[in-house]
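Let's practice the habit of predicting before peeking. Look at the sequence and jot down your guess about where helices and strands might fall. Then scroll down.
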Amino acid sequence: MRYRKLGNTDLEISAVVLGTWVFGGDCWGAAEDDRSVRVVEEAIDKGINFIDTAPIYGGGRSEEVIGRAIRGKKDRVMIATKCGLQQKGSAIKPNLSSAFIREEIENSLRRLGVERIDLYQCHWPDPNTSIEESFGELMKLREEGKLRYIGISNYGADIMKRVLKICPVASNQVQYSIFDRKIEKDLMPVCEETGVSVLSYGSLGGGILTGKYKEPPQLQKGDVRSFFYKYYREPFWSKARELVSVLEDIAGKRGVPVSHTAINWVLSRAGVAGCIVGCRTGEQLAQNIGAADWELSVEELEAIEKRYSETFG
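Done guessing? Here is the structure:
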């Protein structure tokens, strides 16, 4: 496993980060808590020392699973969780008011069974609450010892610049993959200039970059891939398959899973500290972790870039 420094912190995190949205059992199909606990335990034993979660994942269920799994292992793992998404019925809206942030962190600490959260992230910007209120509260919580470092998630370049005038930020967690490269234009240069690390999610394109789909899958209503990712619909599907074919060729020559090439491509980008990858089983976990054992060559990166330009340029 490779390890990298997170922003301007003293945290050395595993390049492959365990993502746990699937453990919530709400958007990726049913989840079995005992199996999820085993996956977390295996991840720690195999060298992953950074786990990302959020209270919105299954209404706290993902955090509870992690809390079970890290009992007796807390000195071997760092936890990143989030705040600021409030669910009322089927509706989810941003809420980064000071009162809701404080309520969320207390619930997260209880569910995770820890006294302090290593990286506490605002899940999405809240247009109805001033950044002064939100990040002022986060700094208070840091002074109280309830969190070590502050992060953001899904923040664009302009609002991130405003936040940085108020509060130090370790990282920005954003969707980033070979397919989705919009952050390269504005956000990544700002992150690089300010020492804010990028934590990528969606780097397997909701599964399409594993190479397992040869035809568009039939997705059930509520499946996150039916509304969060555009890759399974035309006209994107055919273009996606063209790019995946290059990854398949590289993986075939190296004798590794296709997903390794997608994860390694993200890890090759300047400013990326970790690639957050979810998994449901121990087999999927082992496959993801293996991506950190090697790096794409210059020639392989050039081949991927050439096909990307031909297909999406």
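How did you do? The CA atoms of residues 84 and 139 lie 15 Å apart.
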